[in-house]
Amino acid sequence: MRNNNSLNGIYNQANDIGLAKKYLLIAINIFFIIVLVPSIFYNLFILADETNNHLFLALFEIILLLLSSYTLFHIIKYKKYIIPAYVDSFIMFMATIAVILTTEGDSYGYAFTIVLGITVYTLLNKKHATILYLFCSLITLFLAIFIFNTDFESLFNISIIIVLPGGILYAFNFSQQVLIEKLEGMSKIDPLTGLFNRKMYYEQLSKEIELSQKNNSSLTILIVDIDFFKKVNDTYGHHIGDEYLKYISNLFLSHIRPSDTLARWGGEEFSVILPNTHKEIAISIGESFIKLLENDIHDKVGKVTISIGMTSYQSEETYNDFFKRADEALYLSKKNGRNRCTYI
Fold first, then answer.
1. N or C: which end of the chain has fewer CB within 10 A?
2. Could you tell me the fold of the domain covering 198-343?
3. Mind telling me which SMART domains this protein's record contains (predicted)?
């Protein structure tokens, strides 16, 4: 079986994205704590006698500090980032409103919405980030118009501060999300044949095992191996071998049912998941695969045969035991002369 460097690269990119978000969340919460602690002290003990507003601000900051501390604890202990991402976005939203109120309508206070935009579009999905950013923008404009009686020229500048960065961040987030979805899709597909790869096969088989246990239904898998495929590569070259792998993949695809799952396991091995399929039907399907290749002559490679091992899921057995038994059946097919299917 061959390792696929391009897929490994995609997996690494996906892992890097998740790791980057983890460290970003940790950095954001550490930043919140570093900023909030001295600010709370300043408002409680230095400015408290000047006005009660500073006491309310200190109380507000204490709430944000507790939220941020809990979020940091949650990330480190549970290694889950969805809830922390929403909590941090909420903290930044509240901080933005607080900055605008405490600066009493100064333009640099409104500029803090840019920081909010960067935060939410980095941490949240596009839809939720846009909703939160628009909501904050509406509150910001409400404060500017009805609370601080901002003049038209200043209001226009505030609108530019809100709309322009928001549009840029939306476009950037959209392109990033498209890239992530593309990477996730590619990580489940074998680039040569276009079939599901081993990763996706694991996911699909796990789902089918759960359904089989839940519904007490039959589940069978086939492992298909092209006989003497090394000879094909040695005789015609690897480029023809790759061409034949794509060719036989399309043959298999045209021969399975809509409910079945076909995947390239690796090299010249394929596997088929047959839900709601008991022994007799599975053997019939396996034999039809054998006949399909017996009656097919490729224009460059000629006639090629396959060996098949198959087995059905047994209640409460592990995934490894299930697949190992199918692999043993494939070994028997090869041992007994190839060009046959064996059921265990």
1. N
2. Alpha-Beta Plaits (3.30.70)
3. GGDEF (SM00267)
